From TrEMBL:
It comes from the Bacteria. The keyword Oxidoreductase applies. InterPro entries: 6-PGluconate_DH-like_C_sf, 6DGDH_YqeC, 6PGD_dom2, 6PGDH_C, 6PGDH_NADP-bd, NAD(P)-bd_dom_sf, Pgluconate_DH. Pfam families: 6PGD, NAD_binding_2. This is 6-phosphogluconate dehydrogenase. The keyword Oxidoreductase applies. Residues 159-286 form the 6-phosphogluconate dehydrogenase C-terminal domain. Belongs to the 6-phosphogluconate dehydrogenase family.
Amino acid sequence: MQLGLVGLGRMGGNMRERLRAAGHDVVGYDRDAELSDVASLAELAEKLDAPRAVWVMVPVAFTDAAIDDLADVLGEGDIVIDGGNSRFSDDAPRAERLHERGIGYVDVGVSGGVWGRQNGYGLMVGGAREHVDRLMPVFDALKPEGDFGFVHAGPVGAGHYAKMVHNGIEYGLMHAYAEGFELLTASELVTNVPGVFKSWRDGTVVRSWLLDLLDRALDEDPELAELSGYTEDTGEGRWTVDEAVRLAVPLNVITASLFARFQSRQDDSPAMKAVSALRQQFGGHAVRKP
């Protein structure tokens, strides 16, 4: 199958290579000329046979602009796929704009990171059945072998919604491992913290790919001394909590893990300064000076 691919960074570039290895004809465009197969979106469209399918894999801040630019060079019967980490609420307006030009729209939540080229990508897809069916050769090539790793989650927006929840769960799982790491390092009894995590990788109920990756990080730096605790978030955790508030669903763990990331960015928490001041005021408890 032919596919246009816009955005050839860490994810997009690896997806291009996985698709080509599976025998698909992929024409890639990137603003970095060294990565790109063509000089422009117009040239990309010219190299694809109609009806065309073009997958957009760019940072979320540039997705709308990329899709609007594509709409100018595509035509009726073509399909645009957004595989970036877009907010699900952006999908329906995009689909409507493209529908006015006779262009289909499919949203895909993609998980797998830099390992996807080798292991395959988890794909959560939203869109009309006719569009999804037409794109199945591409999805089959990108997903891992076997029965798992793909879902047609529902209509437009469902794919990114599923990926949002996936990333919210990821926040909670990561933080549980992180808290376990801190407790083990504080213990007077445990002298081989990296070994404990390695022992959990097989035969335990907490084994997972995230645990494997943490073990890999501890092999490289047993005390994580070379890393700062400052941790960014890319939006999906916030959107998950927003939805929990809207739907009155208690997401205690995911919300706490998101707030922990906010706390990681504070050199000296103003809130905890206030707590310290209150303890001093009502109980005369000792406080530490900066």
